[in-house]
User: Fold this.
Amino acid sequence: MKDKIKSEEIEEDFDNIKEEDISKEVHFKIDKDAFKAPFTCHGRKTILVGKKLSIDGIDFNYSVWQCKTCKKEYLDLEQGRKLEKFWVFKRLLEDKVITIERNMNYDGKTFFFRFPKELTKDLHKDDLVDIKLLSPEGKMFLVEIRHGK
Ligand SMILES: [Zn+2]
Assistant:
């Protein structure tokens, strides 16, 4: 019963979350076909330029492909992914990540939890889950879902 009340509260919270709240900090959308370097701009090949971002004294280095003529910057897939991770990291530091509380389940053998259904629309049975351990005591994880075959 307790479980049910909790998940209803969560569903209600999710109704108030707009896509722009989640992606506000992500300035670059990653599209796998649009990110093949080197890019051409103004009829010339763009050049790789080192960039630096800083939060709370932590430096983050990445590269962009820049047009020598108009200075427009292009991100390739690898750097785009790196930058996306940086925004995640920044939101974590600022405590601005959406946090969902779930009850721990135990079937006598295995511990597991359920994903809120709002987050499972694009999941498939064959997807793979990468669990990255973030703290030595094993209570903080980063869970990333990859499309399996
Ligand atoms: Zn240009």
